[in-house]
Specification:
The structure is a homotetramer of 346-residue chains. The first copy, chain A, has helices at 39-52, 76-89, 91-101, 133-150, 172-176, 190-197, 201-218, 229-239, 247-250, 285-293, 304-328, 333-344, and strands at residues 4-20, 26-33, 56-72, 106-115, 118-126, 155-158, 179-189, 254-260, 263-273. With 346 residues, the first copy, chain A, is α+β, with helices and mostly antiparallel strands. In chain A, strands 1, 2, 3, 4, 5, 6, 7, 8 and 9 form a nine-stranded mixed sheet that branches. In chain A, a hairpin with a 5-residue loop joins strand 1 and strand 2 (26-33). In chain A, helix 1 (39-52) packs antiparallel against helix 6 (190-197) and helix 8 (229-239) packs antiparallel against helix 11. The longest helix of chain A is centred in the C-terminal third of the chain and has 25 residues, at 304-328. Chain A is globular and about 70 Å long. Chains in contact: A-B, A-C, A-D, B-C, B-D, C-D. Chains A and B meet through strand 1, strand 2, strand 3, helix 4 and strand 6 of A and strand 1, strand 2, strand 3, helix 4 and strand 6 of B. Strand 1 (4-20) of chain C pairs antiparallel with strand 1 (4-20) of chain D, so a sheet runs across the interface.
Chain lengths: 346, 346, 346, 346
């Protein structure tokens, strides 16, 4: 009964045109694995815009992986003293412990949060080309063991205190970072808007404000104002061997659209894009093929392959977001597209 | 280049022992498709507990699928009048329109939210055995066209106003419902806790409070207090042809653990479990096989197959949650388990 | 040492011009009690706009006061059964109990939320002219005692289960209502914008989007997108004998600004405005005087006085919000205004 | 009509017994100004416990005041470059500008958040004994003017970009700090629990978990899990000349209760307590008297008076929280107390 596979439909769409600090100006075909097959033509339309409009510029704001350990002191007073001491007196030692235990993990920051007498230490690391879940758990365990040996008053609570935060909705990730903080942006002329997206900048901006911004606020969203980041994230995560449950954090991002003299400025901000090109799942045949075809196995400088992958994903999220929002500006386009495409593909 | 598949590793684990209004007392093997292969042994340990402890009882609190349309009135004053009129004067007509357009969709409720002069109408439906994304978009479009024809002052904004909320973090879903609202629970003796989970009820409860409750609150979570619902949800979604991006809402749930005379009471509350046994993805060979093996294609009463699937998933989420929390009570168990399992499976 | 008073500076500003279902078209002077005395000239500028621009239209979407009791069943299964039974079999009985116990409280709705085996019953009432905190606690206690006597399996947890939600940040209040859900709106010509507010509609809208919408989302706000509702709410609450701590819920509201052919459409949506004209604090001399001068003691129809007060407050919140946002469009206006006013008033 | 006052009832309750780094072991009477007069006896009961149980220990975790300016770059790419350059190349210059412009304000940290091409710079300062609202606006304006002169590509958006966050619900404040981050804690014997609070540690902890933790999570709270911080905060803010609207942030805090060998450990964590002993409102006669009586005008070291005030407030919040939670463990105590006290005080 074992050693089966879930064979999820996958297609390459595009090309998506991308520019960044590390991508000169490339047109890249991207694989989307999904049961929601209408994602293919929809994202492809956005990709078409990217080629016509001079490409999507992608920037990385920050990059890390985190794990929060939770420890209990005898009192809040001692918790505060110990937390300060860790940062002032033990940071360098802890950084050394991390580097000794791993070729790739480097301690980047420690932030503490104290509730009553419980300390949540949010440990932040760079992890090379790995998404780094296990690497940081391993490093956190070493740090934890050291702290428990140095501070006799501390008691172990949990190696993961839900202040990390992994695969769960939170605010802390967007504010302090987890994964790669990516922004993808494009300037689209009124003309391309009309001809490819069948809408105008003004109409798209109006819909964006009332749906993504006000609609999300009214729904009680948190750090999130977009149409469907999660769809594209999952499709690319499955195609490239990522831990798909990290789309939960990934889904918390912000689309922006505003009119200007040239037409439409459009961006997607994804503060928590967790991806890797090595580790779990990356050895599977089709995953390797996909990563190779995306150019994400070529660099020998640690971190650059994963960064390239994040940039391609961010650009693809923009394509999917742009196309869906444009479709929604026309009352019956969404449903018609679904019906047409699904009939054609029966 | 097309018509490829992403072949994701899948194993059946279990059996998970489940009881509910519609499941007598069965031991069910469940498929988990995931790159995170340590999920298999971990969830299997929880399944073992389910068998020894008399089974997991699953309850369904509510069931619906929603879509929110967004419309603009000339003023807030008119928006309020129109929203009231829709509910008082047009509800029956709208329910009829929905029933005429679909064999399975039934209008269940309309809730309005007005921001300035923009109306967000959250339409709630039952959708039989389908998860219902497209069914409710179709129904919402009919409702929208009717309303635009009746209320000349209304202007179309969006067929989906982000007050639905689909694949995005929100509070409204947990409060008003989207998908199936499931609770799975189990009573575990101190003895089983010790022998299978290698911990005590008191230690597990203490860790749960500081990690899942306080840790999540400190992290700025929203409607969410659990360890890793998203992991199990995704693995079962991929194995059964679901729209995996709905784990975003699914991840927003609450674990509860408390000590009592008998040992440990443990439950998982999942307010937004979106699943179907018909529709997109369900025709794929292995999906059909899996649904069949889970007994989720057997009923001829609309809705019962999807409900059965939701109950099995909820019980499996409990298994995964219980096992991970127990592991975390022991300082180095998590890392050791990862290392052992991954070494064995290289 | 006792029987002292905190003597907080108070001024009447205005007039604020208001129109609604119950206010024909009046110009009303409003009292603001505050240590932040720059609120006076700032809100007065907004009031001036209200008079020039034809008045602020105010609408009430809904009206209630809530209390959530928390009860525990032996299992989630029984919790679900009991919750259903309460709504189906006992609603009328409970409504009767409420009406018998109070001249003004009427049961309006019961909503349940179940986490594990704990039931949170959110009881919603109308409470006439009282804000109703004590009235609904009293009613909830009667309901609770009845339920504990009918359902032998239920165990008391808390008469207030934090699902009410009183004086605390939450999403449930905005979605299900607590207090009066108010919208105030105004249309302002480009000309008035320029001459009184020293800005243009386009500049104000751009600032609003980047500050109130995107800035709030980035900050991890919840159901909240405004500049300073809390300031005006507190100043009016203190002047009219309200429970000032309810500004916590009141602060969670949404400002909207959009350009149109006539100039600027501007609105404030306040879903949780909790006010009363009878009860605690209303017997104090200056409070009575203020309520009288606002015309909020004149009606003999229960509820109309409190509603009138809510409408005046909502209109005043709009004045304060409009004026501050306009000031912020000019780089140094805010600081200059503070310095000038405070120097003048030393 | 002007120069009136809102005369709000005020009483001193206590003494509250407090210990901290700067308070040796004092019994302090505290003034509460409120229309909700039942706060007096309730908080007084908590104060009684504080004296019997050896006092409330108070710790300060951090201390700052913030203002976020919002600026727009031509692209996200440039926004990222500029944000980095500010932190790397201009921090010292900016710190100097701040120190030159004020005797008390010191730049403590700059954190940036970029959405699309809009930069939100969250500027963090220490502000001596002032709460610092105006001081940091003034400093932020100087910083802003400097940045606009150095970076020609930047465009002014807002001197306050709602990422500060002032008087509004948010996650960023609890995570990055705004105001004083205070923890107050106490250990209470089973005996005192029984005799003064009429409950047991176990019953209080159970209620706390289901009300403050789970109830708040179910209600969609954010960074908040307490019973009524806002009540005590407002009463003390009004009595000591604070900007009362800051209870919005102040309300977002976490109560903790757990049983141990000695009885009950109880704490309140208030991450955003904004108070000052100089500035707006502090010159008013009764305010000055109150601050003096609290010992909050005695120190000549900048910051110590405001810190002392924050510690007293935190301890008083604990008293109010403890007493209400204890009352709620007894089904009808809350209502009976209200009725008795209000009858007595008519």
């Amino acid at each position: 009964m074992n050693n089966q596979v879930a064979a999820i439909p996958m297609r390459f769409i595009g090309p998506v045109r991308v520019r960044s600090e590390i991508i000169d100006d490339e047109q890249i075909n991207v694989p989307l694995a999904t049961y929601e097959t209408t994602l293919w033509p929809s994202t492809a339309r956005g990709a078409k815009v990217s080629c016509l409009a001079g490409g999507i510029a992608v920037s990385m704001v920050s990059d890390c992986m985190t794990r929060s350990i939770s420890l209990e002191a005898p009192s809040a007073k001692q918790a505060v003293e110990i937390a300060r001491s860790i940062e002032v007196n033990h940071y360098d030692k802890l950084a050394g412990i991390v580097s000794q235990g791993s070729r790739f993990a480097k301690l980047q920051a420690i932030q503490h949060h104290i509730i009553g007498k419980t300390i949540y230490l949010r440990l932040s690391f760079t992890t090379g080309d790995a998404s780094g879940h296990n690497m940081v758990t391993f490093a956190a365990e070493h740090i934890q063991n050291y702290l428990l040996s140095v501070f006799a008053d501390l008691r172990y609570v949990s190696i993961s205190g839900n202040y990390c935060v992994d695969k769960k909705v939170s605010a802390v990730n967007a504010i302090l970072g987890r994964g790669k903080y990516m922004i993808a942006e494009i300037n689209i002329s009124e003309n391309i808007c009309q001809q490819v997206l069948n809408t105008t900048p003004a109409r798209l901006v109006d819909l964006h404000i009332k749906k993504n911004l006000i609609g999300s606020i009214a729904a009680g969203s948190l750090q999130s104002a977009n149409a469907h980041f999660a769809n594209i994230l999952l499709a690319m995560y499955l195609a490239t061997g990522q831990d798909g449950a990290n789309i939960v954090e990934g889904s918390q991002g912000i689309t922006h659209a505003q009119c200007d003299d040239q037409g439409l400025y459009f961006s997607v901000t994804i503060p928590n894009l967790i991806v890797g090109t090595v580790g779990h799942g990356k050895m599977i045949g089709f995953v390797k093929d996909n990563l190779e075809q995306l150019g994400c196995l070529a660099s020998t400088e640690p971190g650059l392959n994963a960064r390239r992958l994040a940039e391609i994903i961010a650009a693809t999220v923009l394509c999917g977001e742009l196309s869906l929002l444009a479709a929604l500006t026309n009352p019956d386009e969404l449903m018609r597209a679904h019906q047409l495409f699904e009939r054609r593909n029966r």
